[in-house]
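One record is set out below.
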Amino acid sequence: MWHGFIIAATLFLMASGAAAATGEPVATMLETLIKWTPLLLSGFGLNLLMSAVAMVLGSIVGIGLGLCQISLMPRVRTGSWLLTQLLRNSPWLVTLFYVMYLIPFEFHLFGYLIILPDWVKATFGLSLPVLANVSEIVRGGVQSIPETQWESARSLAFTRRQTLWMIILPQCAKRMLPPWMNLYAIVTMATVLGNIVGVTEALTLTRDIIAAEARTEVLLPMYGYILFLFFIYIFPISRLTVYLERKWAVDA
């Protein structure tokens, strides 16, 4: 983890250097960053909320879609494969725009007016590539288990469903968790795309703060600060992912 702290210190020095390069005293710039920290953290919290909800929605649907990819029914298998490839190989921003225009801002349900905030629609948009990637993670994890496991289960009179849920999935859970964690880190970084479609998340608030300060010298430090926030959150996840991959590879 020591090299993570070195990177973090480097990011801080870059922000300080940006302030010094513009002639702004470092102490004054730090005061500016501290002043706006609560607002930035509120926006960053929305980024984390969007990533968590997108992962939950995408994982629930993606697991089902991944299991459909290994179905014995050719039509189900082909259809789920096509949907997975379509969403997995489409640009995330294009998918996000498509969902933003597809889902209405408000609709009536049982006589009640339901208003969907921008961040909810953006989260739905981000969940689509998530479900496609989770589908591939599940398919790959299940198919990584040797065929002898299925044969042994059949010899013990297990049904295919029992074999899948009681024998195969528990074994491949360890293999699926690291790529799932890596996907979560990617989704967290991708939530900044929400600023393009009007979501008031961390990057949007950073731009608003720069406009409110009306000083060009705060531009680099502010963007460096938000970069630092994402780094200190995502880097530990990345390191934990690598650790689990190595640990379980040795155990296997």
User: Anything to note?
Assistant: The first strand starts at residue 106 and ends at 109.
